[in-house]
Write a structure and sequence with these properties.
Blueprint: E1 3-8, H1 16-23, E2 29-32, E3 41-45, E4 48-52, E5 65-68, E6 73-74, H2 76-88, E7 96-100, E8 104-105, H3 108-118, H4 134-142, H5 155-175, H6 183-197, E9 201-202, H7 204-213, E10 218-221, H8 247-252, E11 261-267, E12 270-272, H9 285-293, E13 306-308, E14 310-311, H10 312-322, E15 326-330, E16 340-349, E17 352-354, E18 366-373, H11 390-403, E19 407-411, E20 419-421
Parallel strand pairs: 1-10, 1-11, 2-5, 2-10, 5-7, 6-8, 7-9, 11-15, 14-16, 15-19
Antiparallel strand pairs: 3-4, 12-13, 16-17, 16-18, 19-20
Helix pairs in contact: 2-6, 3-4, 5-6
Bound molecules: guanosine-5'-diphosphate, 6-O-phosphoryl inosine monophosphate and magnesium ion (MG).
């Protein structure tokens, strides 16, 4: 195996960062390809916590080439902050970073627009975004008026695109009492950061292709989750990029024939941050138990995550969309101590039972549950299936059966070591 994708399979925060860090031990290249600093990936290495928003979570492994590919939207200030932190800790001496010249740049007006939308002041549905300017930046990209990293080093091109883009947004911003910045102001704000990242900018398509040709082990690091995908998620309560495994090919510039294994990262229960339907959401003591025990507070915004039972209707469909080869089940330890566990196997909508995700009405479905017995034993020390209590094994078996996909990894705690592999996706 040489190319492995890691994809979030619910509404984000499944533990992708932790799994990428583990699999990166066998990788030579780790590539992020969509989203931006709306992502928050927390890693715990020997008890030390590290959070990445942009830089691939593989960076902590020695001799790994990390790539930010063209499908990303980049807030240069955040990238520079992460680079400074990594430089200070010596990590960047051991790993390399490349930034695509074609990735789009998050500009000040994107942040202003994101905020206006969340205040219902601009015609879009407030979705509880991360307010990082992600949606408006992708909007400029699709509207063919975006600024790309490579434009920044050609002052005339940069200014020309910027002036046209700002002219496009000026009426909207000024109509809502905002001051639309001038192109010169934006240039003065952006260029110091642009110069700082300049040594990392390159044609990442060529770079990744060289790696593939040389037979490198390449890990593709997804952000968000499939239920937040712009096409396949709970639209309009989604993010503004494609988050499915197929998006890796578009965001990197790589053919689908190159991907050998897709690992779906699946939390043993479900969480969601922000607005939108969530059929198995729990507003009771069980939901609070998951939030407290799983520390379910956003790594990017600190917001409490909504918590609920495992939804097998969602994950089965996601495994189909993703072409998942295996599932990595995370946070199984959080369920320890629950008397019984419920798994959603269907929905009741307008008096009918369905086993698929309806396009309309997901906010009012009633979940149909299968109930499983829980376990009390501490499982954080488990390093093989046989170390798990019988009820935990039965729960995992049921997930495999309902989601129609085998398990390659089980995570029983936040630390790198609190994990066991059933199959190494690289081998
Ligand atoms: P990501 O966005 O998918 O990378 O996930 P986040 O980092 O936003 O959220 C996952 C959180 O759960 C992080 O705080 C991780 O440290 C933590 N975590 C990951 N795996 C486990 C696990 O198996 N058990 C527990 N208790 N915590 C975990
Ligand atoms: P990781 O990679 C969880 C959610 C936001 C909001 C919606 C749109 O850490 O799993 P955006 O700022 O993208 O326009 O917000 O998507 N969202 C996430 N939720 N994890 C994430 O990333 C998310 N990135 C965006 O909460 O509901
Ligand atoms: Mg996260």
């Amino acid at each position: 195996m040489s190319v492995v994708g890691v994809i979030g399979s619910q509404w984000g925060d499944e533990g992708k960062g932790k799994v990428v860090d583990i699999l990166a031990e066998d990788a030579e290249m780790v590539v992020r390809y969509q989203g931006g600093n709306n992502a928050g990936h927390t890693l715990v290495v020997n008890g030390r916590k590290v959070i990445f928003h942009l830089i691939p979570s593989g960076i902590l492994r020695d001799d790994v080439e990390c790539v930010l590919a063209s499908g990303l939207v980049i807030d240069l200030r955040v990238l520079v902050e992460e680079l400074d932190t990594l430089k200070a800790s010596g990590v960047l001496d051991k790993a390399s970073l490349s930034l695509s010249e074609k990735a789009h740049v998050i500009l000040p007006h994107h942040l202003m627009l994101d905020k206006l939308r969340e205040q219902s002041k601009s015609g879009s549905v407030p979705v509880g975004s991360t307010l990082r300017g992600i949606g408006p930046c992708y909007e400029d990209k699709i509207g063919r008026r975006g600024v790309r990293i490579g434009d920044l080093y050609h002052p005339e091109i940069f200014k020309e695109i910027l002036e046209a883009t700002l002219e496009y947004w000026r009426p909207m911003l000024e109509g809502r009492g905002e001051v639309c910045p001038s192109a010169d102001d934006v240039i003065a704000q952006i260029m110091p950061f642009a110069e700082r990242v300049r040594p990392y900018v390159k044609d990442t398509v060529g770079f990744v292709q060289q790696g593939l040709k040389a037979g490198r082990q390449v890990l593709l690091e997804g952000a968000q989750g499939v239920m937040l995908d712009i096409d396949h998620g709970t639209y309009p309560f989604v993010t503004s990029s494609n988050t499915i495994s197929g998006a890796a090919c578009a965001g990197i510039g790589m053919g689908p024939t190159k991907v050998d294994h897709v690992v779906a990262i699946v939390k043993a229960y479900t969480t969601r941050v922000g607005a939108g339907p969530f059929p198995t959401e729990l507003d009771d003591a069980d939901g609070q138990f998951m939030r407290d025990k799983g520390h379910e507070y956003g790594s990017t915004t600190g917001r409490p995550r909504r918590c609920g039972w495992f939804d097998a209707v969602v994950v089965k469909r996601v495994n189909q969309i993703n072409g998942s080869s295996s599932m990595a089940i995370t946070k199984l330890d959080v369920l320890t101590g629950m008397k019984e566990l419920k798994i959603c196997v269907g929905y009741r909508l307008d008096g009918k039972e369905i086993e698929t995700i309806p396009m309309h009405g997901l906010e009012r479905v009633e979940p149909v549950y299968r109930t499983m017995p829980g376990w009390d034993e501490d499982i954080t020390g488990a390093r093989a299936m046989s170390d798990l209590p019988a009820n935990a094994r039965a729960y995992l078996d049921e997930l495999v059966r309902l989601c129609e996909c085998p398990i390659s990894l089980v995570s029983v705690g936040p630390d790198r070591d609190e994990t066991f592999l059933l199959q190494n996706p690289f081998r």
